Amino acid sequence: MRLFRMFTIFLLLRSCLFPINVKDAFGRVHHFNKPPNKVISISPAVTDTIVMLGMEKILVGVSTFSELEGVKKIGGILNPNVEIIKNLNPEIVLVMQPTPLSLIKSIERSGVEVFPLKEPKNMEEIAQMVIKLGKIFSKKRKAEKIAENFLREVSPVSKRKGKAYIGFVEPPFWTACRGTFLDDLISRAGWENICEIKGWTALSGEEIHIKNPDLIIIPGRKKKKEIQYLLKFPWNGTSAVKTGKVLVINENLLLRPSPLISRAYKEILKVK
Fold first, then answer.
1. Residue 206 in contact with residue 155, Cβ under 8 Å?
2. pLDDT at residue 2 in the model
3. What is the set of domains in the chain, with CATH numbers?
4. Which residues contact 219 (CB under 8 A, 6 or more apart)?
Protein backbone atom coordinates (compact mmCIF):
# COMPACT_ATOMS: atom_id res chain seq x y z
CA MET A 1 0.00 0.00 0.00
CA ARG A 2 2.81 2.38 0.91
CA LEU A 3 4.61 1.56 -2.34
CA PHE A 4 1.42 2.28 -4.28
CA ARG A 5 1.05 5.69 -2.58
CA MET A 6 4.67 6.58 -3.36
CA PHE A 7 4.19 5.61 -6.99
CA THR A 8 1.00 7.70 -7.16
CA ILE A 9 2.83 10.71 -5.70
CA PHE A 10 5.61 10.23 -8.27
CA LEU A 11 3.09 10.26 -11.12
CA LEU A 12 1.40 13.36 -9.73
CA LEU A 13 4.69 15.20 -9.40
CA ARG A 14 5.67 14.21 -12.91
CA SER A 15 2.35 15.34 -14.33
CA CYS A 16 2.69 18.70 -12.55
CA LEU A 17 5.52 19.59 -14.92
CA PHE A 18 3.16 19.39 -17.88
CA PRO A 19 1.76 20.84 -20.06
CA ILE A 20 4.84 22.77 -21.19
CA ASN A 21 5.87 24.93 -24.15
CA VAL A 22 9.38 24.60 -25.61
CA LYS A 23 10.98 26.65 -28.40
CA ASP A 24 12.86 24.90 -31.19
CA ALA A 25 15.88 26.18 -33.14
CA PHE A 26 13.62 28.28 -35.40
CA GLY A 27 11.88 29.93 -32.45
CA ARG A 28 8.67 27.94 -33.04
CA VAL A 29 6.78 26.98 -29.89
CA HIS A 30 5.91 23.31 -29.38
CA HIS A 31 3.24 22.34 -26.88
CA PHE A 32 3.63 19.13 -24.87
CA ASN A 33 0.75 17.84 -22.75
CA LYS A 34 2.99 14.97 -21.60
CA PRO A 35 6.48 13.61 -22.34
CA PRO A 36 6.56 12.03 -25.82
CA ASN A 37 6.56 8.22 -25.77
CA LYS A 38 7.20 7.52 -29.47
CA VAL A 39 10.16 9.47 -30.83
CA ILE A 40 12.34 9.39 -33.93
CA SER A 41 15.81 10.91 -33.67
CA ILE A 42 17.53 11.62 -36.96
CA SER A 43 20.58 13.19 -35.26
CA PRO A 44 23.09 10.67 -33.79
CA ALA A 45 24.15 13.30 -31.21
CA VAL A 46 20.56 13.66 -30.04
CA THR A 47 20.15 9.88 -29.99
CA ASP A 48 23.26 9.51 -27.82
CA THR A 49 21.92 12.15 -25.44
CA ILE A 50 18.52 10.47 -25.16
CA VAL A 51 20.29 7.20 -24.29
CA MET A 52 22.30 9.02 -21.61
CA LEU A 53 19.01 10.26 -20.16
CA GLY A 54 17.89 6.64 -19.91
CA MET A 55 15.08 7.16 -22.42
CA GLU A 56 16.18 4.84 -25.25
CA LYS A 57 12.92 2.83 -24.99
CA ILE A 58 10.94 5.76 -26.39
CA LEU A 59 12.94 5.67 -29.64
CA VAL A 60 11.05 4.00 -32.48
CA GLY A 61 13.43 5.15 -35.21
CA VAL A 62 16.99 6.42 -35.61
CA SER A 63 19.32 7.26 -38.50
CA THR A 64 21.54 4.63 -40.08
CA PHE A 65 24.54 6.35 -38.44
CA SER A 66 23.32 5.42 -34.95
CA GLU A 67 24.77 2.33 -33.27
CA LEU A 68 21.60 1.76 -31.24
CA GLU A 69 20.44 -1.83 -31.74
CA GLY A 70 16.87 -3.04 -32.02
CA VAL A 71 15.50 0.24 -33.35
CA LYS A 72 14.22 0.84 -36.88
CA LYS A 73 16.73 2.60 -39.13
CA ILE A 74 15.02 5.35 -41.13
CA GLY A 75 17.87 6.33 -43.46
CA GLY A 76 20.58 8.98 -43.48
CA ILE A 77 20.69 12.33 -41.73
CA LEU A 78 20.04 14.30 -44.92
CA ASN A 79 17.95 11.72 -46.78
CA PRO A 80 15.77 9.75 -44.36
CA ASN A 81 12.85 7.73 -45.69
CA VAL A 82 9.81 9.94 -45.03
CA GLU A 83 7.42 7.07 -45.73
CA ILE A 84 9.05 4.92 -43.03
CA ILE A 85 8.92 7.87 -40.63
CA LYS A 86 5.21 8.33 -41.28
CA ASN A 87 4.46 4.61 -40.86
CA LEU A 88 6.24 4.52 -37.50
CA ASN A 89 3.66 7.08 -36.33
CA PRO A 90 5.96 9.02 -33.96
CA GLU A 91 4.71 11.77 -31.69
CA ILE A 92 7.72 13.87 -32.67
CA VAL A 93 10.85 13.74 -34.85
CA LEU A 94 14.01 15.31 -33.46
CA VAL A 95 16.54 16.75 -35.90
CA MET A 96 19.60 18.95 -35.51
CA GLN A 97 20.47 21.88 -37.69
CA PRO A 98 21.78 22.29 -40.29
CA THR A 99 19.12 19.76 -41.38
CA PRO A 100 17.71 21.23 -44.63
CA LEU A 101 14.46 23.15 -44.22
CA SER A 102 13.12 21.28 -47.26
CA LEU A 103 13.52 17.97 -45.39
CA ILE A 104 11.80 19.34 -42.28
CA LYS A 105 8.88 20.60 -44.37
CA SER A 106 8.66 17.27 -46.22
CA ILE A 107 8.33 15.37 -42.93
CA GLU A 108 5.82 17.88 -41.58
CA ARG A 109 3.71 17.59 -44.74
CA SER A 110 3.31 13.90 -43.92
CA GLY A 111 1.56 14.95 -40.71
CA VAL A 112 4.48 14.41 -38.32
CA GLU A 113 5.71 17.09 -35.89
CA VAL A 114 9.40 17.98 -36.24
CA PHE A 115 11.46 19.59 -33.47
CA PRO A 116 14.75 21.05 -34.78
CA LEU A 117 17.53 21.54 -32.23
CA LYS A 118 20.32 24.05 -32.88
CA GLU A 119 23.73 22.53 -33.54
CA PRO A 120 25.85 23.51 -30.52
CA LYS A 121 28.78 25.84 -31.20
CA ASN A 122 30.52 25.21 -27.89
CA MET A 123 30.46 23.01 -24.80
CA GLU A 124 27.98 25.26 -22.97
CA GLU A 125 25.48 24.87 -25.80
CA ILE A 126 25.86 21.09 -25.66
CA ALA A 127 24.95 21.29 -21.97
CA GLN A 128 21.96 23.51 -22.83
CA MET A 129 20.79 20.95 -25.40
CA VAL A 130 20.87 18.22 -22.74
CA ILE A 131 18.77 20.35 -20.38
CA LYS A 132 16.24 21.15 -23.14
CA LEU A 133 15.81 17.44 -23.92
CA GLY A 134 15.52 16.76 -20.20
CA LYS A 135 12.67 19.27 -20.04
CA ILE A 136 10.83 17.69 -22.97
CA PHE A 137 11.14 14.17 -21.56
CA SER A 138 10.52 15.07 -17.91
CA LYS A 139 14.11 14.23 -16.95
CA LYS A 140 15.06 17.69 -15.72
CA ARG A 141 17.13 16.67 -12.69
CA LYS A 142 19.01 13.93 -14.52
CA ALA A 143 19.68 16.27 -17.46
CA GLU A 144 21.01 18.97 -15.15
CA LYS A 145 23.32 16.46 -13.49
CA ILE A 146 24.61 15.19 -16.83
CA ALA A 147 25.18 18.79 -18.02
CA GLU A 148 26.96 19.73 -14.80
CA ASN A 149 29.26 16.69 -14.90
CA PHE A 150 29.94 17.24 -18.60
CA LEU A 151 31.04 20.85 -18.16
CA ARG A 152 33.28 19.79 -15.30
CA GLU A 153 34.89 17.11 -17.49
CA VAL A 154 35.67 19.63 -20.25
CA SER A 155 36.94 22.36 -17.93
CA PRO A 156 39.44 24.56 -19.80
CA VAL A 157 43.14 24.53 -18.96
CA SER A 158 45.19 27.71 -18.67
CA LYS A 159 48.37 26.40 -20.32
CA ARG A 160 48.76 27.15 -24.04
CA LYS A 161 50.38 24.25 -25.89
CA GLY A 162 50.67 25.27 -29.54
CA LYS A 163 48.77 25.17 -32.83
CA ALA A 164 46.39 22.37 -33.79
CA TYR A 165 44.63 21.14 -36.91
CA ILE A 166 41.35 19.29 -36.31
CA GLY A 167 39.80 17.73 -39.38
CA PHE A 168 40.38 15.30 -42.21
CA VAL A 169 43.78 14.49 -43.72
CA GLU A 170 42.39 13.05 -46.93
CA PRO A 171 41.75 15.72 -49.57
CA PRO A 172 39.74 17.89 -49.55
CA PHE A 173 41.11 18.93 -46.17
CA TRP A 174 37.86 19.73 -44.35
CA THR A 175 38.61 21.27 -40.98
CA ALA A 176 36.64 22.68 -38.07
CA CYS A 177 37.45 26.38 -37.76
CA ARG A 178 36.44 29.16 -35.35
CA GLY A 179 32.94 29.17 -33.92
CA THR A 180 32.51 25.39 -34.08
CA PHE A 181 32.15 23.09 -31.09
CA LEU A 182 35.41 21.38 -32.09
CA ASP A 183 37.24 24.70 -32.03
CA ASP A 184 35.94 25.26 -28.50
CA LEU A 185 36.96 21.71 -27.57
CA ILE A 186 40.62 22.08 -28.58
CA SER A 187 40.84 25.61 -27.17
CA ARG A 188 39.74 24.26 -23.78
CA ALA A 189 42.52 21.68 -24.01
CA GLY A 190 45.11 24.44 -24.56
CA TRP A 191 45.46 24.37 -28.35
CA GLU A 192 45.04 27.20 -30.87
CA ASN A 193 43.17 26.37 -34.07
CA ILE A 194 45.26 26.99 -37.20
CA CYS A 195 42.05 27.84 -39.10
CA GLU A 196 41.03 31.41 -38.29
CA ILE A 197 37.87 31.72 -40.39
CA LYS A 198 34.42 30.67 -39.17
CA GLY A 199 32.65 27.34 -39.58
CA TRP A 200 33.86 24.30 -41.50
CA THR A 201 36.03 24.81 -44.57
CA ALA A 202 38.44 22.96 -46.83
CA LEU A 203 41.95 24.37 -46.37
CA SER A 204 44.51 24.16 -49.14
CA GLY A 205 47.63 22.06 -48.73
CA GLU A 206 49.73 25.22 -48.95
CA GLU A 207 47.82 26.86 -46.08
CA ILE A 208 48.33 23.81 -43.88
CA HIS A 209 52.01 23.60 -44.77
CA ILE A 210 52.58 27.28 -43.93
CA LYS A 211 50.59 27.18 -40.67
CA ASN A 212 52.56 24.07 -39.61
CA PRO A 213 50.37 22.58 -36.82
CA ASP A 214 52.02 21.17 -33.70
CA LEU A 215 49.13 18.73 -33.24
CA ILE A 216 46.90 16.97 -35.76
CA ILE A 217 43.54 15.59 -34.62
CA ILE A 218 41.77 13.32 -37.08
CA PRO A 219 38.23 11.93 -36.86
CA GLY A 220 38.41 8.34 -38.02
CA ARG A 221 38.25 4.67 -37.12
CA LYS A 222 41.26 3.01 -38.67
CA LYS A 223 44.56 4.65 -37.75
CA LYS A 224 46.46 2.87 -40.54
CA LYS A 225 44.17 4.39 -43.17
CA GLU A 226 44.73 7.92 -41.87
CA ILE A 227 48.47 7.52 -41.31
CA GLN A 228 49.14 6.85 -45.01
CA TYR A 229 48.11 10.41 -45.84
CA LEU A 230 50.56 11.82 -43.28
CA LEU A 231 53.45 10.59 -45.43
CA LYS A 232 52.43 13.00 -48.18
CA PHE A 233 52.31 16.78 -48.63
CA PRO A 234 51.22 18.88 -46.75
CA TRP A 235 51.48 16.70 -43.66
CA ASN A 236 54.91 15.10 -43.95
CA GLY A 237 56.84 18.26 -43.09
CA THR A 238 54.70 19.48 -40.21
CA SER A 239 55.88 19.71 -36.63
CA ALA A 240 53.01 17.43 -35.56
CA VAL A 241 54.16 14.55 -37.78
CA LYS A 242 57.83 15.04 -36.94
CA THR A 243 57.14 14.86 -33.20
CA GLY A 244 54.45 12.18 -33.45
CA LYS A 245 51.69 14.40 -32.10
CA VAL A 246 48.92 12.88 -34.19
CA LEU A 247 45.62 11.73 -32.70
CA VAL A 248 43.08 9.57 -34.51
CA ILE A 249 39.90 9.74 -32.44
CA ASN A 250 36.76 7.71 -33.09
CA GLU A 251 34.63 9.90 -35.34
CA ASN A 252 31.47 8.95 -33.44
CA LEU A 253 32.93 10.59 -30.34
CA LEU A 254 34.62 13.55 -32.00
CA LEU A 255 32.07 14.69 -34.57
CA ARG A 256 28.89 14.44 -32.49
CA PRO A 257 28.02 17.40 -30.24
CA SER A 258 26.82 15.34 -27.28
CA PRO A 259 28.22 14.90 -23.74
CA LEU A 260 30.12 11.84 -25.02
CA ILE A 261 32.59 14.25 -26.64
CA SER A 262 34.18 14.59 -23.19
CA ARG A 263 35.90 11.26 -23.95
CA ALA A 264 37.57 12.84 -26.97
CA TYR A 265 38.54 15.82 -24.82
CA LYS A 266 40.35 13.55 -22.37
CA GLU A 267 42.42 12.10 -25.23
CA ILE A 268 43.35 15.56 -26.49
CA LEU A 269 44.17 16.71 -22.98
CA LYS A 270 46.84 13.99 -22.64
CA VAL A 271 48.95 15.54 -25.39
CA LYS A 272 51.52 17.88 -23.84
1. no
2. 57
3. 2-152 (3.40.50.1980), 162-269 (3.40.50.1980)
4. 167, 168, 249, 250, 251, 254, 255
